[in-house]
What does this fold into?
Amino acid sequence: MAATPETNLVERWRDVLSCYSAVSCALERALQDAHGIGMSEFEALDRLVDAQCDKRRMNELATDMYLSQSALSRAVARLERDGLVNRGMCPDDRRSIFVCITDTGRTKHAQARETQRAVLAEHLA
It folds into this structure.
């Protein structure tokens, strides 16, 4: 069958999916093996560190990430269970929840960041 703009578009989309799958599987494996956290937990820590603030509203974090609200809530719950973040109610808006990275979370992030960057360099360079 001759290539058309539509088939080229679908082929490019499948290439993107294939690349994402390979990189995300490698990241998940490397982060879990070396640091005991998954890609979603690392991404949440990374976004908290990048924000350069003491605390971040959960809905702001959700806007920045690729996770659904419920998946992010589960990831943050795992991080909280492991002492890497704290969650608390917003005093001005009881519907909002703040997420704060702990010192332990910053240390874990710094260690895991090296692993994440190495995997990205290996697969995307």
